[in-house]
Design goal:
The chain is mainly β. The protein has one domain. The strands form 4 sheets. It has a 6-stranded antiparallel sheet with strand order 7-8-10-1-15-14, with no helix packed on it. Strand 12 and strand 13 form a beta hairpin. The protein is elongated, with a radius of gyration of 17 Å. The mean pLDDT is 95. The chain binds zinc ion. This is CXXC motif containing zinc binding protein. It holds the Pfam family CXXC_Zn-b_euk. Keywords: Metal-binding, Zinc.
C-alpha cells in the first residue's frame, strides 16, 4: 500500500526546531480519491482518532467515503513517523508519513499546533497569520519568526 510523506519547509529567525505538538495534532489536508480523482474540502486527521475499517481490516485515523464515486478508502499516520523540523539543516524535511489505502493527500495546511524552540530550549506556540509568525525572545533579546511555510507530498517506498 502506498506510503506518502509530508515534507515541509520553513524560513526561520533564531529558531532551532519546529514540531507538531501533541499526539492530537491535527493534520489538515485535502484528499484525492484514488478511484475517481475527486478532491475533498479540508478535512483533518489526528493520531488519537481511530475508526474501524469495514471488513475487519483494522483501524484507520480516517475513513473517507468519496462523494462522487462512493468508494471507501482510508488513511493513517504511520506510528513513529513524526519528526521535528531541524531549522539549521533547512530545506524540505519530512515531518510525518501516512499509510494510504485508495486515496492520497494532495494539500496540507497548517492551522496551529506547531511549537518552535530556540537553541536554548525556549519554546513558543506558532500562531501563523497569513502564513507568518513573529515574536520576541526576551531571554536572548532577539526576534524570532517562522515564515514562508511550504509543503509537498512525496511517495515513499516500502511497506
Ligand atoms: Zn471517488
Amino acid at each position: 500500500m502506498p506510503r506518502i510523506g509530508l515534507e515541509v519547509s520553513f524560513d526561520v529567525e533564531n529558531i532551532a526546531k519546529i514540531e507538531a505538538a501533541g499526539t492530537d495534532f491535527r493534520y489538515f489536508v485535502k484528499i484525492c480519491c484514488g478511484n475517481c480523482g475527486e478532491i475533498t474540502d479540508w478535512v483533518y486527521l489526528d493520531q488519537e482518532d481511530t475508526i474501524e475499517v469495514k471488513g475487519g481490516r483494522g483501524l484507520a485515523n480516517m475513513v473517507l467515503n468519496c462523494k462522487l464515486c462512493g468508494r471507501e478508502s482510508n488513511i493513517s499516520i504511520e506510528d513513529g513517523s513524526r519528526k521535528a523540523y531541524d531549522a539549521e539543516k533547512g530545506g524540505f524535511q519530512q515531518i510525518v508519513s501516512f499509510d494510504c489505502r485508495g486515496l492520497e493527500p494532495v494539500e496540507w495546511e497548517c492551522r496551529g499546533g506547531l511549537v518552535a524552540s530556540t537553541e536554548n530550549g525556549k519554546s513558543f506556540e506558532v500562531e501563523l497569520e497569513d502564513g507568518e509568525w513573529y515574536d520576541f525572545d526576551d531571554d536572548a533579546n532577539e526576534s524570532v519568526s517562522v515564515t514562508n511555510v511550504q509543503s509537498q507530498f512525496k511517495k515513499l517506498k516500502g511497506k
